[in-house]
Amino acid sequence: MGADGGSIPDRRDLVKTRGKAATADKAVSRERFFYCALSKKRLAKPVVADPLGKLYNKDAAIEYLLDKSAYGDGEQICPYINGVKDLLTLNAQPNPDEGEGKAPFVCWLSLKEMNGAVPFIALRHCGCVFADGALRAVLPNLAKIGETAEEPSQVACPNCTKTFDPTSSSAVLPIYPTQEVQDVLLTALFAARAVAKANKKRKNGKDKEKKEDKGERATKVAKLKNDRSASGSPAPAAANSSLTSSVRAQLAEQEKKRLAAQAGMSDAVKAMFHNGDTGKKGDVADFFGRTYNRYATS
Ligand SMILES: [Zn+2]
């Protein structure tokens, strides 16, 4: 049969189609490392990566942030980027070989081309870009995405020497990772944003509370002032102070009496125990208020 227009595709046709599709996928995955995801122009410094590891020329990414409709498919490509803080400026080594079909960038360590053939990663703290395998050969404790951190430590970037903690799960950003890893990164991005939002809300809430407290106090003071002037009565503070002064006067009076009594008493005590002349003549009261003539005893 066949040649009647109604042929059923056999296994050979399916394999051929699948082969074609795979080739097309490969071409697309390769192109991503050559061209800006937004402008589709060849990647050239300065280049930025978004939180999912997609690559852009920095000017195109900024243009998109300023005008989300600047590129027709922008909202399909990177709807999750909100601002410049979502972009990591990459320090990628331009490919010294600018020949036909050559990738724009190479690994700082291995000089392998960043063309999709092997996985590439960027260090988040400095933006330096390496072939994943080459960097891990130098830094074996470099964390993998989604892995929990081991003992924190500090190592130097083998390219720019800036130190960072390689065990932090956010130490590296993979460039165009698998869809599975992209999903992990997107979840992490939204989680981080939720935390930041909650912290901001809590901080704002505290500030508002403080303001309300201050406002309440000011209202109370104003009310107090109003009450005082309305009633014409002395201000509580003034009443307090006059009360205090009358109490103080009473206390001072008592103290004066006490001191006087003490002085009298000490004189009497002195008189009782000293035979010498105290300079005072005449009768003095003794401890019990009795009077006696000191000269009578001597
Ligand atoms: Zn670096």
Automatic annotation (TrEMBL):
GO BP, one annotated term: DNA replication termination
Q: Provide GO CC annotations from the record.
A: nucleus
> Which residues belong to the signal peptide in this entry?
none
Q: Spell out the residue ranges making up region: Disordered.
A: 199-259
Compositionally biased tracts (Low complexity):
229-246
Residue ranges, compositional bias (Basic and acidic residues)? 206-228
Q: Superkingdom, according to UniProt?
A: Eukaryota
- Report the sequence similarity comment from the record: Belongs to the rtf2 family.
What is this protein identified as? Replication termination factor 2
Which organism's genome codes for this protein? Cutaneotrichosporon cavernicola
